[in-house]
User: What shape does this take?
Amino acid sequence: MSIDKFNRHPTIEGDVIMAQFLQQLINGISLGSIYALLALGYTMVYGIIKLINFAHGDIYMVGAYIGYAVTKYLGLGFMPALLISMAACGVLGILIEKLAYKPLRNSSRISTLITAIAVSLFIEYTMMFFVKPDSRTFPKVLSNNKVDLLGGEVLLDIKNIYIILVTIVLMILLQYIVNKTKIGKAMRAVALDKDAAQLMGVDIDKTISFTFLIGSALAGAAGVLVGVYYNTINPLMGTTPGLKAFISAVLGGIGIIPGAVFGGFFLGMVETLVSAYGNSIFKDAVAFSILIIVLLVKPDGLLGKAVKEKV
Amino acid sequence: MNKKMYVIFLLVLGLCLIVGCATNTSSNNGETIRVGLNYELSGSVATYGQGLTEGIELAVEEINNSGGVLGKQLELIKLDNKSEDTESANIATRLATRDNVVAILGAATSGNTKAAIPAAMANKIPIISGSATADDITMDSDGNIREYVFKTCFSDSYQGIVMAEFATNDLGIKKVAILADSTSDYAKGLSKSFKETFEKYGGKILIEEAYKSKDTDFKAVLTSIKSVNPDAIFIPGYYEEVGLIVRQARELGLDVPILGGDGYESPKFAEISGKEAANNVFYSNHYSPMDDSEEVVGFRERFKKKYNKEPNGFNALGYDLAYLLKDALERAEEANPEKLKKALESTKDFKGVTGTITIDENHNPIKSTTIIELKDGVPVFLKKLDPK
Assistant: This one.
């Protein structure tokens, strides 16, 4: 790099720097929303059965393809596509749990982890067989309108607004389900102590299925949002965001729902700000370094509470 | 324990025998001339491999219909490397050792071609790429020529020079931002030579940023590029990412010209970027359909008849590649890799649709370049530059 970093903005005034910062904030929040939606699925499943569901990123990919099929071949709009994709992914999540994870519920953690990786590869390459490995372009379902802020210096795309709004609505809904409903209470009970919950009459199987349903539906929503926002989808699109979402979940404290949301937005902002004010080459390196530092200093995640291992 | 080892040993031995037999049964029976194709038929740069293969298949069909080469038919062994370099290396080994090909054509990108080179060199089979533009394809880092490696397209350093000259002289651009794919040899080569030439002409590189292949979010880096107000952005890379970058740049109101290389040549480019965004985009390319030479007109007609669409640059490169091979085989007078290599080295004034090709002492071609502009996603011929 031969550019003098100190002279990068020699004549730009404060307003423009501010505008640029706001623009980067919008970019970061949009990216963070996607990570947060995905991280929720990881964290919920981990919270309830202590399984890192590596197939989660692939459910998100399937969600994107369902959204693609529904908008392209049935000609439906954004909202119906989002709902259909969420429903279908929810069902897929339950199926995966019933077929792959339930038979292994009492085996060692490493067996279920390996199964999760196998399920991930199975979904990726089955999809590749049916939809071909080439990337596809998502049909245009939202207008290209933009909102100009600060006299055109900051552009807020309609798609950004949709991503952020959908994410917020889904998170409020999730918070309501987990904290105010009976099934939410059952989920919290199973997460806390599975055997005790069972003794109290909680239907463990139903509760775990429900957790997969919700987590996978959120992944499906993220898939459709990404398809609409970035316009291209392919059968391996789930791997990198899946990994990033997993990091988000760990950053915030895996198993804690607000932690996943926080971690997602945090990672989105870090990546954006590193490319904006540091160097875009180091974007991922910085994200992973932060993860290592957090794990060293606070192994339970930023929002995690240290819980003593039950003996 | 010992017994177990013995069983494993026997199994391995058996496996070797089976593999060995397979090699023998599929060896060349001498009735056809086998040519291996190692191409990106699926994956992230699939349209390049598919395009080249279409061109090659058209040419081979024509060659076989008019009596073949040296009285034999050409037989293509087409394999998909999935746009991955490990797969490309595997395929090259398979073609060279199991299928007994006389030459390997491919791969499409520089990275995948480089992965295939060791297998071809070890087995002394000529490998010819029609589109691997990296400078160090035919030469290793010490400047030694790789004996069995040839290419029939211009080099990245040349593309970078052409685009820098075009930016300075034709567009009057003085300040440029570079956004390069940090994971590809191709993009690195292009940025280096573009930068050197552009600065030599008094231009200024304001900022150099990078992305990784398969990235999807470029808004952060584009926002910081926008803040330095460049006259143009130079984005060496491949269509999947560049299509997305162009789209996101236009969404952020960054409407300056976008310059690049032959990686933009794909029908998917405008599909990904959207037609409205694919304006004010310029790139260097191997071929132009606007050329009215006898070769190009005839090629377009025959291509349209077979595939029912306009040929693009990669189709043309593939077509030339197959005819260049035929030309060399005829001069070699025998379908023998060693003789073929010698014939390829002495290729002179071969008239193809992508220009007249002479292979120089470094196994690189001397040929012309064209500059294409995208207008509403449609590639339009701008000018042709002859080699210096």
